[in-house]
Design goal:
This protein has 230 residues and is of the alpha+beta class. Helix content is 30%, strand content 35%.
């Protein structure tokens, strides 16, 4: 639901619903929300210091009961997988080392790359990689993960990538011994990655996951940002 306000915080016109439905229960919710908004007008938003342009149009997420339940289920599933990643992190052990590879030659191409390497306590080497081609066109970006020895891939695999507020499932292609994705989607992910802290986690097929510590990678991230012009 969205509605417009004048500079005094008073409602302009009627609140509007962007996703109308003929469901009677949904209509009842809409009517109740509209009444609440009208009663609350005028809103005292200017006192918070934001400019009028920032709050003249207010948007409020409005979900049906079914959508709310789905959102709750998704949140619970995220919490479960986050707990698994944390348990795996403790069980796997191993420190993360971050490295930058400027002007690296790969398959006849010159690229700038970042690697996050973590050798688990059982000796398994794992690796996260972010690359851009020299010149940094959108199509030259790539982002991928090597889950470690013993993993073989015959085709594309669904892998969830998480760091900061980023939560995306990507269909990753087999790129030599690792899985990855390329192009504008990879560029968008890397743009967020270089500004993130905490952990970078990959949730792959066969119930496998691997995480990397980003907190010690600040200088390397800044250098990749400079080299890739992002």
């Amino acid at each position: 639901m969205r509605f417009d306000l004048d500079r005094d915080g008073a409602l302009i016109g009627e609140p509007k619903v962007d996703n109308p439905s003929d469901d009677p229960l949904f209509k009842a919710y809409v009517a109740s929300a509209r009444e609440a908004i009208v009663r609350a007008s005028p809103f005292k938003l200017s006192q918070h210091g934001a400019t009028y342009e920032a709050w003249k149009t207010v948007r409020m997420p409005f979900m049906s009961e079914a959508e709310t339940l789905e959102a709750q289920k998704a949140k619970a599933e995220t919490a479960r997988s986050d707990a698994k990643a944390e348990a795996d992190w403790t069980k796997q052990g191993g420190e993360t080392s971050a490295n930058i590879m400027p002007n690296y030659k790969a398959n006849g191409n010159e690229i700038h790359g970042l690697t996050l390497y973590r050798e688990l306590k059982d000796g398994t080497p794992t690796l996260a990689m972010a690359f851009c081609g020299v010149g940094s066109t959108e199509g030259s970006f790539a982002f991928g993960v090597d889950f470690g020895k013993g993993m073989t891939w015959k085709g594309p695999e669904e892998v969830e990538v998480r760091f900061g507020d980023y939560r995306q499932v990507h269909t990753m292609q087999v790129m030599r011994e690792y899985l990855g994705f390329e192009g504008p989607t990879a560029k968008a992910a890397i743009e967020q990655l270089v500004a993130s802290k905490g952990r970078l986690a990959f949730f792959g097929p066969r119930n496998i996951s691997v995480s990397f510590d980003l907190d010690g990678a600040g200088e390397v991230m800044s250098e990749l940002k400079r080299l890739c012009k992002i």
